[in-house]
Specification:
Blueprint (H helix, E strand, L loop, with lengths): L2 H20 L11 E6 L2 E2 H12 L2 E4 L8 E2 L2 E6 H8 L5 E6 L3 E6 H5 L8 E3 L27 E2 L10 E2 L6 E2 L7 E5 H7 L4 H5 L5 E7 L2 E6 L12 E5 L2 E2 L15 E8 L3 H4 L6 E7 L8 E11 L4 E14 L3 E12 L16 E12 L5 E14 L24 E15 L3 E23 L7 E24 L5 E23 L4 E25 L4 E17 L4 E20 L2 E12 L2 E5 L2 E6 L2 E14 L4 E19 L7 E20 L4 E17 L18 E13 L3 E12 L3 E4 L7 E4 L3 E12 L2 E8 L24 E9 L2
Parallel strand pairs: 3-7, 6-9, 15-18
Antiparallel strand pairs: 1-5, 2-4, 3-8, 6-7, 10-11, 12-17, 13-14, 15-16, 17-18, 19-20, 19-44, 20-21, 21-22, 22-23, 23-24, 24-25, 25-26, 26-27, 27-28, 28-29, 29-30, 30-31, 31-34, 32-33, 34-35, 35-36, 36-37, 37-38, 38-39, 39-42, 40-41, 42-43, 43-44
Length: about 800
């Protein structure tokens, strides 16, 4: 029996054991369940959140009753009922327990009118939001508690209200006047989202092209531009700027995240030149300073045509000095099997990955006003081959040297120090970041070049090494006033070195003619100052504006020439929102984004400079929370003017250069809908439609024509999902989930290569995933399947040049996790 047959037999046994476990008598958690409670005297809202975490129940909070109440100290073994009674003593509020392990806290009057009143806010168990200025703090909207006896009932399910820090202060998602998709850590885990490629199937207007071995490009609403050196989509971890170059963004481990926020449209005012298309923010969990906890999970899965994979993660939270100093350590190891073969070399499953990632986060709160956070992440990933250049049968398709090996490495080291101090009306914050990213890959690709008599010019087996090193410092002040005026002001400095080396071999349709080395060592030192302010004109109308001044000194050395130049920009933003009612908000937003220009020349090509890109985006939208919090919608219309689009053109030496191709317009719509259809069933649907066209060309431009779409813009995205939650015998919580997504065709256009025009369109990608699982005490088990439709189309229009990727084939697996009580 081979390993795959053994694995399938094992998965069948696991499925049988899972079904058997469904019938086991498991004691249901009730208000009388005993738990170990350890809660210090503190504000009541944070005490309630700690109790929810320690007792493992969901908490529904009324944002109108938070107040300034405080809770007494609780310690010892007690029932959930006893703990709630003591915390809610003498406050005039009540609570109730529903059958899905949810505690609802509200006032007496709100309880009587809950079915017709304003929606309540559900928080994750024990979830702490980011307070103003980014410091850890109680979740806004959490409730104070009451002194009445416990009230039990059937309860009601409603959607969670998410708090985000997209504008660098804590806000309800519905109050932010721009389109944002936010997913909590629990949502990421339940949906099986482990990478940014998985994320792209769940977020409207986000497209990720996987170019193999940790190489990936991000595009939001058509802006991302695989050409150019610097990124057009910013990436942040907490307050650390980790934006890498446009083609090799960091391969972020998504274990133990509080949430992910995807900000759509230019974010130049608050996030700088790397965010002309949008920003992706990874928010990690802070250490819990009051209690030790641990979590671990293991996934085993088998991929059709490929090898078995094993991935394990562990999280340890350790208070070193109670309520003052603590660490949170997250480790991940993955032996990820490949599925691409190389028949010419007699090799199978070459695109394996050996993944190791460790993240350590420290938190020190020497006083109530001050917090110090440290973040260190060490990431190592490598394998024997890449999945790009594979054909529809998952065989590596290297045209000229079929036996060439294509190993890769994708490593980075990240260090961040975050200092936060609260004054009476202002929060001061300093974020210092250093990261070093080293990627190394070997590709095989070919494409025609304008070189008489225009045969195929081929890059063969070219090792490509990219070492990106960055130091950045951000200092900002954020208002804490409550008089309707909110403002933020700061300064940002970044020094980045981008060192590339590409070795390649040359052929013109025949034997190898030789080899060469292309160097591209770039540096940038940028300084910017920014400010943003909003004012609540009435209790319904808010208006705001901001701007960022950016100055960038750039250098470049290609082994022949050393060049310098400076670029600068002022990027404004104006926005307004109107609350039609508590649950219906409309907004308008105008914002600019910017990317610096650069230099060409050397290797026999004349020197030249290409100009910066500029994106101005107009957006109008609406966000709603309807049906007493059971239905949330988000709809946005956008139009962007894209100036001086940086486009890649080939040169007689075969290396190519960047130039400004012209101006383009991008227009589209994206939407999302979440519906808590019943207490057990929740449904989601989302999508986007994007249309991009060149409207004018730079003098002499022949690579594109007016009317051509810009590169790497998906025509549309669509997603639908459903989750059914239910209790098995003896109250065992369980769920079943189905996700379907579709990404429309992307394009690449090149009319100037010297041969026939390249007008390539990637395939429409259909993905269907399923998960079913249950929780037994502190354990959870889930069976999952991905790509049930066996989609194997080209995801990336770079397939026109022989480097397109295809989705992982159909995969089945099991995931087991456990946590401390």
């Amino acid at each position: 029996m081979n390993h795959r047959a053994i694995l399938r037999t094992g998965l069948q046994c696991c499925a049988f054991l899972l079904l058997y476990a469904l019938s086991l008598p498991v004691r249901a958690a009730t208000l009388d369940s005993l738990v170990s409670v350890e809660i210090a005297a503190q504000p009541l809202e944070s005490a309630l959140l700690q109790l929810a975490e320690q007792a493992s129940f969901q908490l529904v909070l009324d944002p109108q009753t938070v107040g300034s109440r405080r809770a007494p100290q609780l310690a010892g073994k007690m029932s959930i009922r006893q703990a709630l009674d003591r915390l809610l003593q003498n406050t005039g509020l009540v609570y109730r327990w529903s059958g899905d392990h949810t505690v609802t806290i509200t006032s007496k009057s709100d309880l009587r009118t809950a079915s017709a009143g304003e929606p309540l806010a559900r928080a994750d168990p024990g979830r702490m939001s980011m307070g103003e200025g980014g410091e850890a703090g109680p979740a806004p909207g959490s409730a104070a508690a009451g002194d009445e006896a416990a009230i039990q009932g059937n309860g009601f399910a409603m959607l969670e209200e998410v708090v985000v820090t997209a504008q660098k202060r804590a806000q309800r998602l519905i109050d932010v006047p721009e389109s944002i998709t936010a997913l909590t850590g629990a949502e990421l885990q339940q949906a099986g989202i482990h990478s940014v490629l998985d994320l792209s199937y769940a977020v409207p207007s986000l497209v990720v092209d996987d170019t193999g071995g940790g190489y990936q490009r991000y595009f939001i609403r058509g802006v991302g531009n695989g050409n150019g050196v610097t990124s057009l989509v910013g990436v942040y971890m907490d307050d650390a700027d980790i934006t890498n170059n446009g083609n090799t963004q960091l391969d972020i481990n998504m274990t133990d995240l509080k949430r992910i926020e995807v900000l759509k449209g230019p974010q130049g005012t608050l996030y700088g030149d790397g965010s002309a298309g949008g920003t992706i923010r990874y928010i990690t969990n802070d250490p819990n300073l009051s209690a030790f906890s641990a979590y671990g999970d293991v996934s085993i899965y088998d991929t059709r045509f490929g090898s078995m994979s094993e991935v394990g993660s562990a999280v340890i939270n350790a208070p070193l000095v109670k309520d003052t100093l603590g660490l949170r350590i997250v480790g991940t190891y993955g032996n990820i099997g490949g599925w691409v073969d190389q028949p010419a070399a007699g090799r199978t499953d070459i695109n394996n990955q050996d993944l190791r990632d460790v993240r350590v986060k420290g938190l020190w709160t020497p006083t109530d006003a001050m917090s110090v956070k440290t973040l260190v992440e060490i990431h190592r990933n490598g394998g024997n081959g890449s999945e790009i250049s594979a054909d529809a049968n998952y065989n590596l398709a290297l045209a000229v040297e079929p036996t060439a090996r294509t190993p890769f490495e994708s490593n980075f080291d990240l260090y961040n120090l975050n200092l936060s101090y609260d004054l009476s009306s202002v929060n001061l914050l300093s974020s210092t970041t250093y990261f070093d990213s080293l990627t190394h890959g070997v590709l095989g690709l070919e494409y025609p070049v304008d070189f008489p008599p225009t045969p195929l010019f081929q890059f063969l087996n070219n090792p490509d090494t990219r070492d990106d090193e960055s130091f950045s410092e951000e200092i900002r002040a954020t208002s804490r006033a409550t008089d309707g005026l909110h403002w933020i002001a700061g300064a940002f400095y970044k020094h980045q070195k981008l060192n590339y080396a590409t070795a390649y071999e040359e052929s013109f349709g025949g034997p190898l003619l030789g080899s060469d080395l292309a160097l591209d060592n770039e540096g940038t030192k940028s300084v910017s100052v920014f400010g943003d302010g909003s004012y609540e004109i009435t209790d319904r109308i808010t208006a705001g504006a901001g701007a960022r001044y950016f100055h960038d000194d750039r250098t470049e050395y290609d082994g022949v020439l050393y060049r310098t130049g400076s670029f600068h920009s002022v990027d404004p933003r104006v926005y307004a929102s109107y609350a039609v009612s508590h649950g219906i908000h409309v907004y308008a937003n105008i914002a600019d984004g910017f990317r610096s220009g650069g230099f060409n020349g050397g290797y026999g090509v004349p020197e030249s400079t290409f100009a910066p890109e500029k994106v101005r985006s107009y957006e109008v939208g609406t966000k709603t929370s309807l049906l007493d919090g059971h239905l949330n919608t988000d709809l946005a219309l956008f139009f962007s003017r894209y100036s001086n689009y940086q486009i890649y053109v080939n040169t007689p030496n075969g290396i190519g250069e960047l130039e400004n191709g012209g101006d383009a317009h991008i227009k589209g719509i994206d939407w999302s809908l979440q519906w808590q259809a019943t207490d057990h069933l929740s449904l989601e649907a989302s999508g986007s439609v994007t249309n991009s066209r060149f409207v004018s060309l730079a003098p002499g431009e022949i690579t594109v024509q007016v009317g051509d779409p810009i590169d790497y813009t998906a025509e549309y995205t669509a997603r639908a999902s459903g989750v059914y939650r239910f209790n098995l015998p003896r109250g065992t919580p369980a769920f079943a989930r189905l996700d379907y997504s579709q990404i429309g065709p992307e394009h690449t256009t090149d009319r100037g290569e010297g041969g026939p025009p390249i007008l390539f369109e990637s395939d429409v990608i259909h993905m269907l995933d399923a998960r079913i699982g249950l929780n037994i005490s502190d354990w959870s088990v889930a069976l999952f399947a991905t790509n049930l439709l066996s989609e194997n189309g080209n995801e990336d229009p770079s397939a026109a040049f022989g480097i397109g990727a295809r989705p992982r084939p159909r995969t089945f697996g099991i995931e087991v996790s456990a946590s401390t009580p």
